[in-house]
Amino acid sequence: VGRLVLVLGDQLSHSVSALREADKTSDTVVMAEMMDEARYVPHHPKKIALILSAMRHFAEELRAEGWQVAYTRLDDPEATRSIVGELMRRAEQHETTEVITTQPGEWRLIKELNNAPLRVRQLPDDRFLCSLEEFDRWARGRKELRMEYFYREMRRKTGFLMEGGKPAGGKWNFDHDNRKRAQADMLRASPMQFAPDEVTRQVLDLVETRFDGNFGQLRPFWFAVTRAQALRALDHFARHLLPGFGDYQDAMLNDDPFLHHSVISMYLNIGLLNPVDICTRIIEEWQAGRVPINAAEGYVRQIIGWREYMRGIYFREGPDYVRRNALGHDRDLPALYWGGDTRMNCVRQAVEQTGKEAYAHHIQRLMVTGNFALLAGIDPVQLHEWYLAVYADAFEWVEAPNVIGMSQFADGGIIASKPYISSGNYINRMSDYCGTCAYSVGDKTGARACPFNLLYWGFLDRHRERFAGNPRMTPVYRTWDGMDAGRRSEILSDAAQRLDNLDAGRVV
Ligand code: FAD
Ligand code: SF4
User: Fold this and answer.
1) pLDDT tier for residue 184 given thresholds of 50, 70 and 90
2) Same domain, yes or no: 96 and 165
3) How many other C-beta atoms are found inside a 10 Å radius of the C-beta of residue 326?
4) 3-state secondary structure string, 198-234?
5) Fewest Cβ atoms closer than 10 Å to its Cβ: which of 270, 277, 337, 449?
6) How many angstroms is it from 110 CA to the middle of ligand 1?
7) Residue 61 and residue 163 share a domain
């Protein structure tokens, strides 16, 4: 009797472990579009459409390669709502109880499959450069799990950007060169866009009727939905945008959502691309002398460093990681995250483009929406669910460590050695947002003062006990303590007022 081979919506790689293990002649691939998964958090319609269209294209590719595929569409009358329900139904049809799959990237699904009344074997997901065992070996016994040291190990292991055992260019990390402000540039290329084919058009119609109320715009839809398209998008980035990636990595501009970013995380995370494809292509450009080392190194670090490190942390820390709340933050997520009115131009830009594109780049996520939430003391679980819902690339294994750990310090400092917070000054330095904002970034108190300026000191004051002893935070506490008492209390009372406004639902 053949087995069932479950392939999930983010496992769309022809070499995924479950397919490698399976036998084309006797096993049946099971793929299902499930309402429970689509509704688990209110996902952005573009994200749902990306996954469903890529799944349908992938199933067609498998069939063309000779696989038997049992595919359930969202609107199939027979469809059950959950993965286990779907497996049970297919098991009965195919008279088998044996299932193989690749381990999901989310504890919740791993558990559901473990508890299913079938014999489900979950194989390791080896589409990563570092296995979970290898990460654990690296982490064991270390007092601090700093990404930079993990990254160096990965450079040595892969040989990427290494010359004779030494880092190319003489340094491991060129971030120091990567903090330039960007100028509006009509000639800058945009990410490659793809016109929806018939399969995608059908999916768009379906998503439009089923998920009408979700935050975010479905159309225009231009994402790649096959590996061939995703490879073209990667190539386009490598040729046209990579040279400026390093310099402008942290820059933000009004009405320019993408700048020099690659916008490929959504393809990588659902399996259309893999880390080796990407790094090989990037390094090729550097070897040909077409991109500077700070761009190539900066990019490779995100893929073999940050991405792999985040996954290692998520699985090492266990299922309760997403519930951590080391700073005890409990303010409800304000409506402005769902497109409600705000006077803060930086936040409005980040949220508006998120609604439009299901995308924001790293510094917008970290230093605008993340920074604001941390300074305002927003409940990290609600924030985590927001990030998981609104970004096309959001899957829990990578989203949660970025939000709970890196952005919110809710894991107590496993990922970040100090909280990523800033006043309006940083945003002003890296963007042109403040020039058109209703607030004044130069004002530290008063009605026009930038909320980031006020909440920054409010946060530091509130969490003094935890952070004052951190050597990297000593200079800011020294600055705070150096202000006269009257000034400090004015700032704190203005900060409290802003938070009251937020709680009362007034426009902030
Ligand atoms: P580029 O800027 O072009 O970077 C290249 C690639 O490096 C990305 O495609 C991505 O695969 C990888 N990368 C870069 N930074 C990280 C990082 N911190 N962690 C993991 N991979 C990284 N990334 C996700 O893939 N999914 C998420 O749900 C997600 N949520 C985030 C939430 C917060 C609060 C923050 C601060 C970051 C989050 N990131 C997430 C990381 C990063 O912001 C995105 O990977 C990046 O913005 C994707 O856009 P891009 O492809 O244009 O990336
Ligand atoms: Fe954002 Fe403050 Fe600048 Fe306005 S002034 S854009 S709120 S940082």
Assistant:
1) confident
2) no
3) 16
4) HHHHHHHHHHHHHCCCCCCCCCCCCCCCCHHHHHHHH
5) 277
6) 23
7) no
CATH of the domain at 170: 1.25.40.80
Give me the pLDDT at residue 220, please: 98
- Label residue 177 by pLDDT band (50, 70, 90): confident
Which of 304, 288, 262, 286 lies closest to 159, judged by CA?
304
- Residue 68 phi/psi, 5-degree rounding, is -85, 125
CA–CA dist 392, 361 (Å, integer): 12
Between strands 4-6 and 28-32, the pairing is parallel
Is the distance from CB of 229 to CB of 12 less than 8 angstroms?
A: no
| Total domain count, the chain | 3
Ligand 2 atom closest to the CA of 437, numbered from 1: 4
| Position 79 pLDDT exceeds 90 | no
User: What CATH number is attached to the domain comprising 407?
Assistant: 1.10.579.10
Q: In what order do the strands lie in the sheet with 98-102?
A: 68-72, 28-32, 4-6, 98-102, 119-123
Protein residue with least CA distance to atom 1, ligand 2: 346
Residues 386 and 390: their CA atoms lie apart, in Å, by 6
* 460 & 378 share domain: yes
Specify the ligand 1 atom closest to the Cα of 249.
2
Query: What band does 3 get if pLDDT is binned at 50, 70 and 90?
Result: very high
The answer to whether position 221 is within a domain reads no
In ligand 1, which atom is closest to the CA atom of 370? 34
CB 133 within 8 A of CB 106: no
Residue 450 beta carbon below 6 angstroms from any ligand 2 atom: yes
**Whether residues 345 and 448 fall in one domain:** yes
Domain span holding position 262: 132-191+241-316
CB 294 within 8 A of CB 119: no
Q: Torsion-angle region of residue 433: left (phi > 0), alpha (psi -120 to 50) or beta?
A: alpha
Q: Is residue 446 part of a domain?
A: yes
